[in-house]
Amino acid sequence: MAIVSLSFHSTYQNAMSAGKLAHIIFILILISFSDALAQKTKSQLQKEKQQNQEKIKEVEKILAETTVQKKNTLGELSALKQRIQQQEDLINSIKGEMSFLDTEIGENNGIIQVLEEDLKKLRKEYAAMIFAAQKANNSATRLTFLFSAQSFDQLVMRLQYMNQYAQTRKLQAEQIIKVQDELGGQVREIRVKRDEKNKLLNEEVTENDNLTTLKKKQNSVVKSLEKEEKKLKRDLEETKKAVANLDKLINDIIKEEMEREAKANRSKDAVALSSTFEDNKTKFPWPVSGFVSQKFGRQNHPVLKGIVIQNDGINIQTKENERVKSIFEGEVRKVAFIPTLGSTVIIKHGDYLSVYTGLKDVSVKVGQKVSTNQEIGHVLSNSDGISELRFRIHKNTTPLDPQSWLKSM
Question: What pLDDT is recorded for position 133?
């Protein structure tokens, strides 16, 4: 019975160890896959945070320029609003990183728990195998086991059992070392992640303090501007008149083009250009760097209560003397100066027009063919130190929202 028990125990332990090894391998693969997936997501979050920090630097420059000549302007208010939005985005990206770290720490704790349980089982099994081996290593017992074989084949089989038993003990010892190493690695990794989280917590506190300061500054600017209601209304009326002149200029161009095309068949080039323009929707480069200070469509005035503004394009606030570029290939159809707004360039792209208003100088002329990203002039800075481009896209007589055609910033 002792001999049969030893043989059975050897076979059983070999099978159990093979199963345990498969389990350990599965855990290690799971850990590797989880780490790879985590790194990718963490990398995306860190990239997002870096992009937010770069945007903040850009807006800080614009904000600084708006306060050089005069404080408490609509341009400063727009820059502050954008700065606050980016600050909130930065805080959200930090929170996203912390949330992800919490998930990682939770997963690490789960893996550590499983590894500790496996290690306990492996050690228990190994102790039982050592005890059985010590009993079996008695030379008399081993010889009795071998020479009690009833045939040569059975003798060979018993020798194989004994070899398998020795290999199983070796394999079990290797598994224990692997699990111990992995457990130690997981413990070290969780310490690193906790340090990362503490660093992010400190960052969040700092950035929340910055956000509070920015919001206080914004409220101060709003209160100051509310006291200048008469001036703001006067400026608004001047701008409305200037925009009306711009509308007339655009409508005249559209009318001329439609009349010209009515007299002659549309060329294949014009049709192809319109189609290519449409195909590039959401891919166009921005005409100037900066941020959208006024969106497309109807919107409330940022300070004056009850006043609604209609914008047939978008306003892009930027840095002083920034280059303005064509968003797509086409032909310059109009270059004009509009009081209050500055110079305007209108470029035709088949059925579409792109309109650039607020230039201090123009480097193209009517009839000139331009390419994508070609410089057409520099942005104008007004008396308040605000550098802002008014940008439009029209399909024939219909104004379109430029933000839905440009690349995501």
Answer: 56
Could you state, in order of their start, the residue ranges of all structural domains in the chain? 2-226, 230-404
User: Terminus-to-terminus CA distance in the chain, angstroms?
Assistant: 79
Tokens describing residue 56 = 């903040």
DSSP assignment, residue 406? B
pTM of the shown model: 0.73
Q: How does DSSP classify residue 219? A: H
Alpha helices in 227-325 (DSSP H): 229-263, 268-279
**Rg, C-alpha atoms of the chain:** 37
| Long-range contacts of 278-284, Cβ-Cβ distance < 8 Å, separation of 24 or more | 280/328, 281/404, 281/405, 282/404, 282/405, 282/406, 282/407, 282/408, 283/407, 284/327, 284/328, 284/405, 284/406, 284/407
The secondary element (H helix, E strand) that includes residue 208 is helix 152-226
User: What burial class does residue 218 get, using C-beta atoms within 10 Å of its C-beta: 0-12 exposed, 13-18 middle, 19+ buried?
Assistant: middle
CA distances from 132 to 11, 62, 118, 165, 173 (A): 13, 79, 21, 10, 15
Classified as helix, coil or strand, 122 is helix
CATH architecture of 230-404: Distorted Sandwich (2.70)
Contact 343, 86 (CB under 8 A): no
What 199-202 contacts at long range (C-beta under 8 Å, 24+ apart), as own/partner pairs, is: 200/94, 200/97, 200/98, 200/101, 201/98
pLDDT of res. 155:
60
What are the 10-residue block averages of pLDDT along the chain, 409 residues in total?
38 45 53 52 81 87 78 88 92 86 77 72 66 54 57 64 62 68 73 83 90 93 91 92 94 86 74 93 96 95 92 96 97 94 95 96 97 97 91 94 93
